[in-house]
Amino acid sequence: MPVAHSTDRSHELTERHRPRRRSVLAALTALTGTAAASALTACSVPAPRRPTPTADPAPGMPIARSRRAQLMQILAHPDDDLYFMNPDTQRLVDSGVPLLCVYVTAGEHDGRNRIPGGRNVPADRPAYSSARHQGLRQAYATMLGLDRFTVWQKGVASLRGDHRAEVNTLAVGNRRVELVFLNLPMHAPRRWESLPSLWHDRALGLHTVVSADSPLHRTVSYDYDQLVDVLVGLMEQYRPTVVQTLDPDPDIQHSDEATRRKNSEQRGYADHADHTAVACFSWAAMLRWVAESAKDGGQLPAFVATAFRGYYNRHWPKNLPAAALTEKAAHLVPYGGDPAWQCGNPSGCGDYNVGGTRPLTNKKGWVRSTHHRYPGARPVVAGEADGRLTAYGVLGLRAVRWRETAPGSGQWGDPDDLGGGPLAPALGSAALPDGRQLLFGLRFAALGGHGGANRREIVVLEQRAAGGEFLAWKGLGHPERDDDRGRRIGVPVAVAAPDGRVHLFVRNADKGLSTRVRGSDGRWDRWRDLGGGETYGTVGTDGIQDGLSAVVDGAGLVHVHAAGRDRVHHWTQDTPGQELTLRPAGAPTAAGETLTAVPAPGGGVELHYRRPAESAVTSVQADGRVLRTGFDGYGALAAAPSPTGPVLLGRDLRGRIRLRDGQRILTRTQGVEPLDSPALHLGASGATAVGMGADAHPWVWRPAPTRA
């Protein structure tokens, strides 16, 4: 959001900060006049809370087959996609993937489209909403390579439950963008934040805002279930293969009240309350879509999900280098527009506080990073005894397995459903000494509004025999003292040590490292905190970002690295079998999930990462020497050891997948557009990259080997 939304009261999406129903009803009772009636409605007897349906987590369900790609992103406000989801969205649009953007709020705020340095403007909520919609049309027209004032087709979409919404469509060649404006209000009278209250309170309903110059002329009403159902209906209609959302579980953030208000964050958490509410509604809708589709023997929808951090970007080192940042910020310029433009919209030509150079000069720095809420390689790749590859990923919020049809074929059979959902997008894995796989997931154990449980847990799936089927899923809980803190944990990362132990790691709510260890007898010990988290007022405990790297060196010692604010945190053992401890010093800081480590030939590990806002790779050798390489790009890195030096996998500055193998740098130039972070596998034929495509299907890239 480009405007600081200072409110009299902030609603956090947590168990312990829910607005009390009596207080909400009291505020509603006090409302008078047509303006209040147009914003909120309340029933004297709330309807009973509708249970959140969940598909049976047992494995073996049929999965729908579709190789067409469709991107759907669900936003709280106009511009959330441009600030938090680019350049990912742009790469998919550039490749021809059709895009559906669903904007839940009208973005009307206080109705003032402020012109920097200009006079104060009168409040006009319908006009400000319309101006922001015009800005989006300008931004996406530019992204499609068209004139920013290209005329869009405006229409009205009929949605579930007799709801209606404005839809804007622009198509050029094989590329198509559709913008759906649900237009729920951002703020209700008396400064109540509407969407967080709608998530929590059964007594609440919201009337939409009718934007100026909209083909809609009447408001419609939404309650909790109706909003979820409308989102489910859009998913069923468009059948997205990629769903992009905001962060449902933002970090805990302790800010004084003045700072919190200035930065538009909910009390106690590092994001805007609307972002969190819309993310929770989005994940609830995905759960309901899967459950409805699987009912009565139906097929699971084949889609992958990605969640993006929001105001988190302000709190951590920036991870986009200059070239990627310039490209990303450029799309906010037509969105911000200018009052002097002749765009044909009487209500305004963009969100004026965002245009010009302001995205880059904004001290909050939201545009300077793109962080995934659930970082990690997807899919997980393993080699089978017969030479084929096996890939494990999350499809339809459930774990699945793909097998290569023949060794080296690069073709995959149909996915096998392993169940276990609903799962976050990235899996962790570890291979036991006998070849059996362990898969780890972050599970949405409960996701309910209206006072329902909201709980996350780590789960594990253990293979019965190498290459064979699996046992039942097992819950490992989480390392936190309550479920609200448990929502803040990161993606599980695991590694198997030579002594038969499996070490499991997660980032915890204090932004430190927690672990749980599986003994060689298969039994799991308790969760333990390994430190590194934020301790306010204590020097040297600055916390870590998610995107952990865990590796075993040649001496059998386990190492974990994580990016902090000013240095890389490093945990390791003194001898095999001991508990890991945090080392007192680390390398210069890394840009989040770009960090990866490999065993060094002479012992210890080599660390590879990109420093904040840099495109080059920094490599820290086992002896402490720091080298810089020209493997320029952005985003996550993967590495694997080889006799000729570490093999690196990442993206170049244009978003293409690149591989550095020895002295060669090779670029993937064909195939489906990749998502997120591909996996790197080294086999007898050399380096292989395996990733997820925009069609929700794995792809394989095998450059010609450099070694016999």
Automatic annotation (TrEMBL):
Annotated spans, Disordered: 1-21, 245-270
Stretches with biased composition (Basic and acidic residues): 1-16, 251-270
Matches recorded under InterPro entries: GlcNAc_PI_deacetylase-related, LmbE-like_dom_sf, TAT_signal
Segments forming a coiled coil: none
UniProt superkingdom: Bacteria
Keyword ATP-binding (UniProt): no
Transmembrane residue ranges: none
Keyword Membrane tagged: no
Pfam family, one: PIG-L
Keywords assigned by UniProt, alphabetized: Zinc
UniProt-recorded name of the protein: PIG-L family deacetylase
Organism from which the protein derives: Streptomyces formicae
